[in-house]
Design brief:
The complex is a heterodimer of chains A (493) and B (376).
Chain A lengths: L5 H5 L1 H11 L5 E2 L2 H4 L16 E3 L4 H14 L2 E5 L15 E5 L6 E5 L4 E4 L5 H8 L4 E2 L12 H7 L6 H4 L6 E7 L5 E5 L10 H5 L8 E8 L1 E2 L3 E9 L2 H13 L6 E6 H11 L9 E9 L1 H17 L4 E4 L3 H12 L1 H8 L2 E4 L9 H15 L3 E6 L4 E8 L6 H18 L18 H4 L2 H14 L17 H5 L17
Parallel strand pairs in A: 2-4, 3-4
Antiparallel strand pairs in A: 1-2, 5-6, 6-10, 7-11, 8-9, 8-10, 12-14, 12-15, 13-14, 13-17, 16-18, 17-18
Helix pairs in contact in A: 2-4, 9-11, 10-13, 14-15
Chain B lengths: L6 H14 L3 E4 L14 E4 L6 E5 L4 E4 L5 H9 L3 E2 L12 H6 L7 H4 L2 H4 E8 L4 E5 L11 H5 L7 E9 L1 E2 L3 E8 L3 H12 L5 E7 L3 E8 L1 H14 L7 E3 L3 H9 L7 E6 L5 H7 L6 E5 L4 E6 L5 H8 L3 E6 L2 H6 L8 H14 L11 H6 L5
Parallel strand pairs in B: 1-2
Antiparallel strand pairs in B: 3-4, 4-8, 5-9, 6-7, 6-8, 10-12, 10-13, 11-12, 11-15, 14-16, 14-17, 15-16
The chains are: A alpha+beta (493), B alpha+beta (376).
Amino acid sequence: MPAPDTATLAKRDRIIAAMRAIVPGEGVISDADGLRPWESDGLTAYRQPPMLVVLPETVEQVSAVLRWCHAEGVRVVPRGSGTSLSGGALPLADAVLLGMGKFKRVLDIDYEDRIAVVQPGVTNLAITQAVEGKGFYYAPDPSSQIACSIGGNVAENSGGVHCLKYGLTTNNVLGVELVLIDGEVVRLGGRHLDPAGLDLLGVVVGSEGLLGVVTEVTVRILPRPETARAVLVGFPDAEQAGACVAQVIAEGIIPAGMEMMDKPAIHAAEAFVHAGYPLDVGALLIVEVDGPSAECDHLIGEIARIAQENGAVTTRVSEDEAQRMAFWAGRKAAFPAVGRISPDYYCMDGTIPRRQLPHVLRRMEELSAQYGLGVANVFHAGDGNLHPLILYDANVPGELDKAEAFGNDILRLCVEVGGVLTGEHGVGIEKRDLMPEMFTEADLKQQQRVKCAFDPKLLLNPGKVFPTLHRCAELGRMHVHRGALPFPELERF
Amino acid sequence: MLHPRDEQDLCEIVASAEATGARLELQGGGTRAGFGAPREVELVSLAAFAGVVDYDPAELVLTVRPATRLAEVQALVAGQGQMLAFEPWGEPASTIGGVVAAGVAGSRRVTAGSARDHLLGFRAVSGRGEGFVGGAKVVKNVTGYDLPKLMAGSWGRLGAMTELTLKVLPAPRETVTLVAEGLYPHAAHAAMACALGSNAEVSAAAHLARGITLLRVAGFAPSVGARCAALPGLLAEHCTLRLEEDAAALWAEAMAGTALKGAVRWQVHLPPRHAPALIAELAALGIDWAFDWGGARVWIGSDDEGTAVREAAARFGGEAMLVSAPAAMRARVSALPPRSAGVMALEARVRRAFDPVGLFATTRFAEDAHADQLPA
């Protein structure tokens, strides 16, 4: 992380007083005991108590906090519910942690236009709960949906098991109200499709809190499918399961969800929730389809046929809702289940072209032997998003480092076969130093120039995403034409 | 017109334009050259950047060079039972780079997303004369900023794309159009909202001014059959539906607005609930019109060269893009609707991040000329 700024630390008392003047009452936390609960997010291997926590309740307060911090050169780390798995909301010793948890209201629901306008602290699941009475839901469903906030979903461009069919957050958000680091409030997008001009909303979604602070989100809501059915298929090995996935898609079927688990993950999950998973298979697929019941019946039949053609040894179709939920219970509990068989686990998030799955799994086995650490795999099979869970014990000296090195090798492998470092968890602090594996210096500088367009002093969430922090002036490479600067009316930094 | 052969040529063209102060306009098929103000520019043909780089249907990913004809791309993916789900449309010379840069989407956009939702990655040459990539070649990726979103719909103002990676999806095995006739705009909008809000999974909904409401039902045969059977009941209080065997021309009319009367054509995006009121308010201008996306897109044709359409769209929480008009009007009225001062300033800074001296900022868009004045 960037070294704490001693000048900022020296004026901590003045910063606290200024924040208290903007956010009165209990909205500013500065005592050591009070700060401790905020020291990490979902990536608990990294901990750092913030300089102070500010919990604004209004857009005006957010704007005033940012304006003051901008003027004073104080860093700000925005935080939603703190469920990031990549350390996106990890505090800094010299930064204000700006918690958006008090923005909890659903502002407007328009069923006719199929949109909901909500504050960023509303949880993902709460949006669905607010609209389900009328037969609607909000489609992206990250596993943390009971706790994660929609503001955090916007920052991370969160996915979920259904995103192959329904898209990520970016495909389901129509507009945001965004406070820039200098306190200016802008609205990007709105209540209609495809606004003209540059798609700034598109680049803000997934920007990991580096471009601005979202204070309102407009999302699309969808009519709840009439029905959903799932089929549970066991294969002798992952190669056959992968071939089955490829054929399902080749035959024109985009399932609502298509999840794969390898043998260690199946055993851990079965031991934990007793979902009735077969234990004599090398790979398990859960394929879910949703829509009109005529469609589900048809597709389940097709998928069962394709599974047989690819060597399935067990095929079970959900007969009712309870059975469908049982199929999912093991998959949804896979992370805690692995947590029971290992003191600690480290969750990776690369995406690969699916055809590379057998090769990547073989390489992972070799790496597992090389590092002497076990690995269990759960896999969003439809879109190639891998979640290898590396098993380690943080109390054994050196194991965390080994787990991280193993994880980095897995991500390098993902990039090497044509994939990416992160499919849905974000870069954050975790994968920051691996960015050059995927992007050249020119690519990264271009992304950082976008950062400079929003936050030229680099005050928002510094230390995340980018491995090297270039000053914006250094990236600008000013051009001088015939003695005159371009854009003479624009401020220079 | 300049004809770069490869990325190296493009970089050199940018470098030399930087030295001379020339403004560069990138051209694919040139079919949308009439969009925006008449202008003096150096045209850069991307014709050499054509052809398919990689297509793996099972991965749902297609990598293609920008000057590849749209029709060629559509035929290629159709041959594998797939489609570009945003349903881009254009004249025969339209290119894939052109439709993505213009953010063109068809009627399916209302349920499947726009060009921005299907551009996974790209390679481009920036206004610095540097090659760079954004995004990636897999369907699920959140590594770094989502620069493909910025490139889609940017009208070539951030850089010259030399390669695009698009998400493709299985094409529906069967597509059926149901039609209601004789509905007034309010009733047509209500019927479309009801259909799109139902779980009959209507993939597109449009309404033509002459009283033809179109609902598209697509998918596997048993599902299409069940949904077509359910829809008349779901919409019973709105209309009666019949099967339309020959709907292609009707959809083309709804998604491109090309059959509208009048020399001036606007594309209005707005909250769909206001679409009927918008056209009622503009009736005095003698407009022709069509609703697409359930009313979220309204095409308006007229002979009026004023900006009443743009002002009315703004009053209803939407915005109007001037798609085509006589040159004199295009010189006077910006193609793009105004945004707030804060957003315009932010856009200018983002453009500067890609194009520091404004090489790609032609006078096509008045806003660029104001924000990016090069010294004389």
